[in-house]
Amino acid sequence: MSKENELYTGVIKKYDMNKLFVKEIYALVFLLCSLVLVVCIFPFFWTILSSFKSIKEFANGANVFPKKFQFAGFFKTWTSLNFIKYYLNSGISVIGSVVCAVIFNGLFGYVLSKVRPAGSKVFEVLVMWGLLIPTTTSIVPLFMHLSQLHLTGTFIPLWLSMGANAFYVVLFKNFFDSLPSTYMEAARIDGANNLTIFFKIVFPLSKSIIMVVALYAITAAWSDFLLPFLLLQNTPLETVMVKLFSLMRGAKINDVEMLRAIVFAIIPPILLFIIFQKQITQVTIQSGIKG
Known about the structure:
- The protein has helices spanning 3-6, 20-50, 55-60, 71-80, 83-115, 120-132, 139-148, 156-162, 166-177, 182-189, 194-205, 207-223, 226-232, 240-250, 255-287.
- By secondary structure, the chain is mostly helical.
- The chain starts with a helix and ends with a helix.
């Protein structure tokens, strides 16, 4: 068997399954994994199925599946809550966040990996330390500074926060370390500066890691709540997550409508995973990212 084929054989080989002990262990592991899967996905399916119920059936019935699927209720909730507005706000936040996450963190990772100016080791250590500091510890001084700069009520802080992410910087740096330096040295001989090298040489060679960071940024920006809540609450720019919190706190809608609003909020990440499931797996393997 070739080394390439051995990579896809797994821990348990075909001939191991002839042993009774291996079969029992395999069955036990499969059963435990199936149980964990059911426990993890049950709340998700319960939320979706319950959102199709009427408020009377939801309050009185203990059944998981609705007696009748109320599709009209989704349209009513969508229009009454004007959800298209919050979708657009979240979309603007996501697009700006992805652009900043890719460009700014990519440039920083490129500098640490290939340019390596004086003092770059110090910044590299600071980036690693940044991974250890919880984001919530800096939220108060960050909000105070943003207020002093009159940036509250705008998407700009949300975009810039994604452009200063230590995790993304580490991902970019590790990937750039694996790129051959011959192309960049040849470009420098031709008179290209670092920005030209980054955008015309490094960027096209980094499609896999760019997709990884972009997918992370999309998920993070869409599901982010704390900073958008502090900056955009009670403004026309409220995102989907901020609106959900306002609905729960205000108690102006019934439980089923709240579930429908939650379904609207989780649809984009689910579609993103379904559409890019294969690409996510491929780029994760190619980039050496686990977890």
